[in-house]
Fold each of these.
Amino acid sequence: MDSIPALVVIAPGYFVQAWLFVRHRALGGLGHDLTIIGAAATVWTLLFVGVFLGGGRLLRRVSRRH
């Protein structure tokens, strides 16, 4: 990969696949690709949802004070 942003986006998937490899449960072929894409999508979705919900709670607290 020549693009640092692309590597950052897909990195969680690589970590999961590396963990599976160490545990002798690594997938090959299409399973490898699906693991990387699925893990990265899950991590980023949870991160964005957490930030979104946290921001919403913060806005509600700030708006209640005034």
Amino acid sequence: MISSQTNERRWSERYTSQLRVDVYQKQIRITSAVLCNIGLGGLFIQSDSVLQNLDCGQALKLCISHPANTQNDCESALFPATIIRQEKAGTGLVFSDVDVCLFQSLRELLRVV
């Protein structure tokens, strides 16, 4: 079920979801996590100790699994993101290096979340 959240500091609507997120660092998958919420600007994921030990500012790449993609899609559609917040409940990330293709991919993803 999709529900939206509002927060005055965000420029885009956030959607709750529980999709799987594979987290990559330097082209190596370091962990998997569960998506809590996502918007065009970033996302919040339930994180494990691997992510909790990374510092804010750390650059990562994310593959967000959804019914319309396959493993090959993940390899070609990694979303660059930077850790901006660490909490006990999870990790907040902002999408980085957003170009037109990435923005369109995010919009398509939000349609199926």
